Amino acid sequence: MAAARLSRRDLVTVMTATEIRSAIRPDIKEVWRWLEDVPDPEIPVVSVVDLGIVRDVDWEAADLVVTVTPTYSGCPATAVISFDIEEALRRRGIEKIKIKSQLSPAWTTAWITEAAREKLKQYGIAPPLDGSTCAGALKAAGDVACPHCGSLDTEEVSRFGSTPCKASWRCKDCLEPFDYFKSF
After folding, report:
1. What is the enclosing helix (H) or strand (E) of 158?
2. How many CB atoms lie within 10 A of CB 24?
3. CB 67 within 8 A of CB 85
4. Per-residue pLDDT tens for 65-97?
5. Contact 147/134 with Cβ under 8 angstroms?
6. What is the pTM for the complete model shown?
7. Same domain, yes or no: 97 and 122
8. Claim to verify: residue 94 and residue 120 sit in the same structural domain
9. What is the pLDDT of residues 110-131, one digit of tens each?
10. Helix or strand or coil: residue 152?
11. Are 127 and 46 within 8 A, CB to CB?
12. 3-state SS class at 67
């Protein structure tokens, strides 16, 4: 029995089919890299991955399931985040996407990456204090450094900032106002 020989055209067809299958179902690590480019709608210098909002990515049969935990259960940006994630994945060729909301365990500022903390600071937002407990509108437990000049001579102006996740602060040295990302 003679072995079947593939023509160059057949080989190109096989490679193309393999590439198409790969594009339809990319590796999970690749999907995580794509999600690193999805900005948070309220703080565009950090991604939803940087903030720890994306909890898991996995394939369930033909569906790509992205598990998301909002920064708090009533966060008004949750729907926008889900939409932006879906749009980013659709642009990459993923058609079957499920966004799963997971409220427990609750999101915590401990999930924010060190790189994101630095990005927040560069953007003019004081990152949450490590190890502090500041649920919701409670005052920061510790010294909040000014993201502009680094001074610790700062004061809270209002427990309610530009978004529910932030409080308004002011530096007594450089006199600049800034947001403090509350610790949860």
Report:
1. strand 154-158
2. 13
3. no
4. 999 999 888 888 999 999 999 999 999 999 999
5. no
6. 0.75
7. no
8. no
9. 999 999 999 999 999 999 886 4
10. coil
11. no
12. strand
Reading the block at residue 29, the tokens are: 């690590």
- Please state, in angstroms and rounded to a whole number, the distance separating the CA atoms of residues 156 and 111: 24
Tell me whether residue 7 is in a domain.
no
As for how many domains the chain has, the answer is 2
Q: Which two tokens stand for residue 177?
A: 């106002």
Which single residue is written with the structure tokens 């720890």?
52
Residue type, 60: E
- Amino acid letter for position 75: C
Q: Tokens at residue 48, please?
A: 């939803």
What letter represents residue 165's amino acid?
A: C
Angle of the 78-91 helix axis to the 28-35 helix axis, nearest 10: 120
Q: Which two tokens mark 18? A: 């393999």
Enter the DSSP assignment of 111.
Answer: G
Distance CA(87)–CA(93), nearest Å, equals 10
Give strand pairing partners of 98.
Answer: 65
Q: Which two structure tokens, joined as six digits, stand for 179?
A: 């947001």
